[in-house]
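Input record (one chain):
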Amino acid sequence: MREKGFTPESGEGILKPLNKERVAHCFRQAIGTYDLHATVQRQLSERLLDLAEHYPAIRHERVLEIGCCTGMLTEMLCRQHRIGTLFLNDLVGDFASVVKARIPANRMPAISPLFGDIETLPLPHDLDLIVSSATFQWLSDLPALLPRLALALKDRGFLVFSIFGPGTLAEFTELTGVGLHYRRPEQIAGLLADHFILEHQSTRQDQLFLSSPRDVLHHLRDTGVGGVRAHRWTSSTLKHFEQQYQARFGTPAGVPVSYTSTCYIARK
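The corresponding structure, as predicted from the sequence alone:
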């Protein structure tokens, strides 16, 4: 018996470099399911934009979105603001048509596709705003990208982003040793300080409650986050995982899936 996505392994695998081709494959496979199951990601995008509304100095003539995925944040941003040119980035080029289709015609900016690995792509210049939600945890080298983002911004331009941090998918990682290496919020704030003025930082914890440990695996698959490692379940490891997840974390409301996220608003 096989379950797509993950399999238990030792914690040694946590810090290995991500296979970005696999990350892209898993998100591509989740195109049809992401919006339905990514409730925390949707709430995080809403929170990020709500926070940004408190900074009227943010301009929207030239905007880069990093990690647009299916366009949750893109649609919200375009509905709230008139954007001149939107440089649209994601590792998965297949998202381009999905994102464009959800932007209302009367709010459609000039779209400039920038699909591929943002860590290696040439960046546009003279940007007013760089925005990203729930993407930066997938980067291989955030310290190297941040100065490039600063150079891409106009003076006093803004970098507005959210990122998942320690505690995200903690239950799954505790049982399997498989997970991302998350930077602590204070580490990210320190990195930003070299190139930006940090205007806002806030961290929040969320939990989803699902019916069973098997539903946890389906949730991870349907939101694309199976790209951490390529694995296969056996009948015995799957049964053990389900028993342990229920025994350690089960509640009357169901079994939890934890997320910890931090929003940052930084000015060049």
